[in-house]
Amino acid sequence: MKEIDSISAYFVVRRKRGMSYSVIKELTAAVAPIYGDKEISFSNRWARKGYPGNLRLVQYYSMERNEVLDFLTNNFQLPAMTIAESYRNRWNIELFFRWIKQHLYVTRFYGTSANAVSIQIYVAVSAYCLVALAKALYSFKGTTYELLRVLSVSLFERQPLKEVLDRYEDSVKEEANQSYLWPSLFDDVN
Predict the structure, then answer these.
(1) Distance between CA atoms of 56 and 65, rounded to whole angstroms?
(2) 102 near 128, Cβ under 8 Å?
(3) DSSP notation for 84-134
């Protein structure tokens, strides 16, 4: 947390159980679903050594979980509700990047600036949308992943896409027919 604070960024984390702190002052009045908004400091010597500055404690009542959630942040400017919402949306951001890794095959970012990352994500999403459109246009029976695989293999062929997809579907049907000719390990041989 100290490193994040040193680069003038802010963080929002859940409060750990058993964390000892002292309240310096109340920042805003409690208005549902915000139960509390306080400026605090760690009272434990080791915790104070890890983060010597003051923190903000936002207490938020979650109707879905039916419990009060405590969030710690170093941002004193944003409204308490925005702090709670940013933590709640954190999971959506993680799911978005997981989806990118699984579907767009962005294993690493080639640039470190926000512009470079945005461009790489936009290009990957655009390519995925084009493949999804081709899948719908040609009524491809397989998954989008299979279509991406077929396209990556036949990328440099000068054939209409419809012929490439027909050839792939014919090979899949042929493999399915051949699997009935050969016994598998689990067939009962008498």
Answers:
(1) 22
(2) no
(3) HHHHHHHHHHHHHHHHIIIII---S-S--SHHHHHHHHHHHHHHHHHHHHH
Q: How far apart are CA 4 and CA 9, in angstroms?
A: 6
**pTM given for the model:** 0.56
d(CA 76, CA 57): 10
Residue 17 pLDDT level (bands cut at 50, 70, 90): confident
φ and ψ at 125, to 5 degrees?
A: -65, -40
Distance, CA of 56 to CA of 90 (rounded, Å): 18
Strand order in the sheet with 21-26: 12-14, 67-73, 55-62, 34-42, 21-26
Span 126-166, pLDDT tens digits: 988 998 899 999 888 888 888 888 888 888 888 888 888 88
Q: Which residues contact 54 (CB under 8 A, 6 or more apart)?
A: 24, 39, 40, 41
Gap between the terminal Cα atoms of the chain? 68
Q: 64 in helix, strand or coil? A: coil
Which of 87, 89, 90, 124 minimizes the C-alpha distance to 105? 124
